[in-house]
Amino acid sequence: MRIVTLTEESKQNLLEDLLKRSPQNYGSYEQSVASIVEDVRIKGDEALFAYTEKFDRAKITAENIRVTEAEIEEAYQKVDPKLTDVIRKALVNIRSYHEKQKRYSWFDSNERGIMLGQKVTPLSRVGVYVPGGKAVYPSSVLMNIVPAKVAGVEKIVMTTPCSPKGSVNPATLVAAKEAGADEIYKAGGAQAIAALAFGTASIPRVDKIVGPGNIYVALAKKAVYGFVNIDSIAGPSEILVLADKTANPRYVAADLLSQAEHDEMASAILITTDMELARQVSAQVDGFVKELSRKEIIQKSLDNFGYILVAENMDAAVQAANDIASEHLEIMTANPFEVMTKIKNAGAIFIGEHSSEPLGDYFAGPNHVLPTNGTARFFSPLSVDDFVKKSSIVYYSREALEEIHEDIEAFAKAEQLTAHANSIHVRFEQ
Fold first, then answer.
1. Exactly one of 328, 330, 353, 357 is catalytic; which is it?
2. Which of the residues 178, 261, 327, 357 is marked catalytic?
3. Which residues contact 201 (CB under 8 A, 6 or more apart)?
4. Is 392 helix (H, G, I), strand (E, B) or coil?
5. Fewest beta carbons within 10 Å, which of 193, 218, 315, 374?
6. How far is CA 278 from CA 253, 272, 393, in A?
């Protein structure tokens, strides 16, 4: 891996380099995605089936688009029982963590006859998109469905691409069944996002769409935002490790590569205060790459967006980490909890040498759907909050309103909104 001294200039160059990965730079694909979305909006199933045949080479119809219970049962027979058991264990942790995020309606009243509050209501229908192309991620099925179930969403509709023979990956189906998906449809790509957003004769319209996907899926979510809500427009995966001389270079190297293997656009960055550790990690990375199964993808990721930055001190390292605002941030230092208190921007923070990032991907419980491309400066991980809406509650008695009606009328008149003022005034006409 390239080793660079951390300066203001090198940091800015890195930030500019990372921004090239942003979904906001996918403009060349937007027109083709917009055409697909509009076709599905107007033609419904006709367009959905045509695009599925074109892109997935699968002949899907109204009769076979929905995954049946028989297909799910068949999936259980194909999946290793040990994996099913692991999925169930992970579900316990994920559900337990997200149950602690639940919010409840609240009301506050006083003796003057005023009651204010907030009513929390689950979304009625949520669409979960699950990729099915280069790789299959049953863990993402769990992470997207569980918080929706905990929130109390009435219906969870899942879509995922199928094979040319019309089959869906068995592990994906088992994870969906275990997590609690209500309906599963064989549809992928931008056409599936459009179907969820606008509804077709086969796929019901939803209120929100969540889940990862490729460039076409990301741009389709961007295109339908406003017709429905979305979780985010996710970019490629990324990891940043903060380490000092006490870190184990083999651990650091292994963790960097855990994200580099996702795709060629993934980012893996080490910021350290020790040049010797930087050299050792670089050597360990070279050794691992030769052994790992996705070595071509990993090498391209490292060549494009892999960096080792050597900082003058830990304060400078932390500042750089906050500026980068990585999706995953690992802290391997002598005092990791102290460093953690200084972190302002990160999707998920992993503390200590035994809290490797894949722990969060699969098993610990916190959601692995995280903000990417620096958006951890203002976005949060997927949570139960993403699947509820909040309504403000206002009640005033006549007596309570009488005390302040002239203030409201004066405010409205100052804005030249006389109908607003009159709405209050008529209640106190002599």
1. 328
2. 327
3. 44, 45, 62
4. strand
5. 315
6. 10, 7, 56
* pTM score of the predicted model: 0.92
Place of tokens 């316990």: 92
Q: Does the annotation count 328 as an active-site position? A: yes
H or E element at residue 209: strand 208-210
Neighbours of 25 (CB within 10 A): 11
Amino acid at 327: E
User: Using an 8 Å Cβ cutoff, are 292 and 285 in contact?
Assistant: no
Residues in contact with 77: Cβ distance below 8 Å, sequence separation at least 6, in sequence order: none
- Tokens 């403009």 label which residue? 27
What are the DSSP E strand ranges found in 336-406? 348-351, 388-396
- Which residue bears the tokens 């002949």? 59
Which amino acid type is present at position 376?
A
User: Is 405 part of the annotated catalytic residue set?
Assistant: no
CB neighbour list of residue 428: distance below 8 Å, 6 or more residues apart: 402, 405
At a CB cut-off of 8 Å and minimum separation 6, what does 427 contact?
398, 401, 405
Task: For residue range 223-252, list pLDDT tens digits in order.
Answer: 999 999 999 888 888 999 999 999 999 999
130/226 Cα distance (integer angstroms): 21
Which contiguous run of DSSP H or E holds residue 119? strand 114-122
Listed residue (321, 336, 358) closest to 247, CA to CA:
336
Tokens representing 395 are: 């009640």
- Of 215, 320, 302, the closest CA to residue 258 belongs to 302
The pLDDT tens digits for 131-164 are: 986 667 899 999 999 999 999 999 999 999 999 9
